[in-house]
Amino acid sequence: MIKKHILFAAMLSLHTLAASAQFRINMGEDSPMRKLQIAEMAISNLYVDSVDEQKLVEDGIRGMIEKLDPHSSYMTAKEVKAANEPLQGNFEGIGVQFNMVEDTLLVVQPVVGGPSEKKGILAGDRIVYVNDTTIAGVSMPKEEIMRRLRGPKGTKVRLGIVRRGIADTLRFVITRDKIPVKSIDATYMIRPGIGYIRIGNFGAQTHEEFCQSLMKLTGEGMQSLILDLQENGGGYLQSAVAIANEFLKNNDLIVYTQGRRAPRNEYRSHGGGLFEKGKVVVLIDSYSASAAEIVTGAIQDHDRGLVVGRRSFGKGLVQRPIDLPDGSMIRLTIAHYYTPSGRCIQKPYVKGKAEDYAMDVMNRLKSGELMHADSIHFADSLKYYTLKEHRVVYGGGGIMPDYYVPLDTMKYTRFHRELSARSYIINASLRYVDQHRKQLQKKYPTFDQFRKEFEIPQSVTDGIVAEAEKQKIKPKDEEELQKTLPYLRLQLKALVARDLWETSQYFAIMNEANDIVCCALELMNP
Fold it and tell me: Burial, 330: exposed, middle or buried (Cβ in 10 Å; 0-12, 13-18, 19+)?
C-alpha cells in the first residue's frame, strides 16, 4: 500500500504553519509540490533497491537548500543540539575544561562552582575511565568521550582519576548539573583607565555577562573601552541589539531587517545604557560576522566610536528557524540586515555556489586585501554617511574599519602555522603545566608577577621543533626558525597563563603583540 506521504509537510511542520496565509499550499495537478510528492512516492515504492525513506527526504531538503544562499541550511536533530549549546549559555554535564594529551583526557580546569570542582576534581587530573568504560589509551574519539561525560541534570557518572603524586586510581561519583558556557572570553584593564572586553559569540547570556564585565571594569576605573569582536562569528540578534543599547542614546536605530516577504522591522535602543559616555573602539577582522557586524555597524554609523582592524566577513542574511517534527530544523534566509545608515551588511554571493563563498577570506588574502587597504575598491553607489558627523562609510558587504590594520604575515610564519595546526604547541603547553603546576603556582602567586618574570624554557621550544622534525615538519631555513621563535614563546607563555588562571590572562599576554589591539591603544592615547 502506497503511503500518503507529503514531503512538504515534513519540511515545514505544516501543523504549525497551516494557519498562516504565507504558507497556503496549492496541491493541484500542476503544483510543484504535487510533482515532488509523486517523485518521492515513486522512489520509495518502485525503485529496484530498498531505500532509506528518512534519508531520501533529508537529501531532498538538502538538495533544494544547496541551490539557495550560503546561509540557508538543514540540520539533523543531533546537529541542532550541538549548534545550540554554545548559544544557549549552558549544557548538562560534569563541568570540566579538558584537552587530550597522548590519548588521555587531561583536566585543564574544573568549572568554578560546577559539580566536578565541588567533588574535588583538580586541574591536572587525568580521567581514565567513565562508568565501566576505559577511555585512556584506547584512541576513543573526543566526541565519544564528551557523550559519555555529558548527560541529563541529576544523573550520576562514576569517574576513575589518576592524579600526579598519588599511586592509586581515585574514584569519584559526580552528579551532572547545568554547566554555564561563557561567551565573554576576556575582561581586564589593559591600561590605566582603559578596559578591554572580548566577546567570543552572541549567546543567550552574553548581554548579562557583558553588563557584569562593564560594571567590574567601571569599578576598576575604566573611562574608555576596547570592545574586541575579532573572530566573533555572531549568534543571536537580540543579544547584539541589547549590547549595542549599552552604548547608544534612547531611540537610536540599531539595525533593521527587510526581505521579499518580510516587511521592514526596526530594532531601536531604549536608553539607560551602562556605557553611553566614554570613548569606545571596536576591533574586527575578516572572521567578525553577523551579530558582531550589527554591533559594529551601529556604533560606527552613530559615530559612537571608532572601528579598527580589517573588513568584516559580511554575513547579513537573516535566518528563520523552522522546526521539523523529528527535531531537525531548516534555517531559511528570509531577509537582509541593514545598518542604521542603510548599508546592507551581506557581501555578494552566487546562489548554489557555497564553496566559492566559503573561500572568500582566502581570496582576500590572495588579492592582497588583508595586507593592503588600497587593494579594496568601493563603487560610488556604495557610499553612505554616518548619522552625526556625516563621515563616508561603504556598503557592499561587511564593515570597513575606520582605521585599517594590515595582516603581518611575517610574524605568524608558515612553520608556526604548521606547528599550530598539528597541535604541537597546545600539547607542549599542557605537558609543561602538568609537570610543573605546583612549582609555577608557588613561584608566581599572582598573574602580574607571572607576566613580568616568567619566560618559557628553551627546552620546551627545542622539544616542539624536535618533535615536529620527526614528522618531517621543519622551517624552510634558519631565518624562518628565528622569525618563528619569538611569537611561539609568547603564545606558549599565554597558554600557560590560561591554564594557571583563565582566558583573560591568555589575552592579556597575546594582545601585547596584536597589531589591531595596539592600534586601538594608540587611538585611545593620541
Answer: buried
